[in-house]
Amino acid sequence: MKIITTPDARLREKSEKVRKIDDEILGIIADMRKLSLDWEKGHPYELSAAMAAPQMGVNKRIIIIRDNMEDKKKASFTALINPEVIRAEGKVKYDYEGCLSVPSFYGLVPRASKVRVKAKLEDGTEVRIKATDELARTLLHEIDHLDGVLFIDHIKDKSDAFYVMNDKGELEPADYEKDVRNNTKLWGEEE
Fold first, then answer.
1. Which of 98, 170, 105, 100 is nearest to 134 (CA)?
2. C or N terminus of the chain, fewer CB within 10 Å?
3. pTM for the full model?
């Protein structure tokens, strides 16, 4: 298993609902946790906050969210199965997002600041989550993956919304015309 990246067409597919939480599903979740942490080892300035099953080419509605997004040493994740946005509300805020499947680029992405999500945990327990700010943004980003949507889609035509990380771990504006607009590694081949 590996993390797939743009322009892989599997990232654009709508994921199937999980019908039964069995050993196959638990294995997928274990693989997601491992891939997430393996990715992080090669990225000293970045934290793997979350991941969706489509990011490893598995077309199932499963995401994992890091339990502590402030401390790289705390590497536990909660898996959410069939997560569904019940309501997204609050002030729309712009903040930086990156993605394991969109190498090299970051974006200043608009998202609702509050979200309510329902999902199942690995043991089958149904949960309802009220989240704000960073957690709300992360949930919305990952649930987008389950519908074949990437963060870059929200800012595709905004020339000032794309960033790259320099070798010191700082974000700098990307050259939109040169590096973003017609980048087939981001958008795939035009039809």
1. 98
2. C
3. 0.95
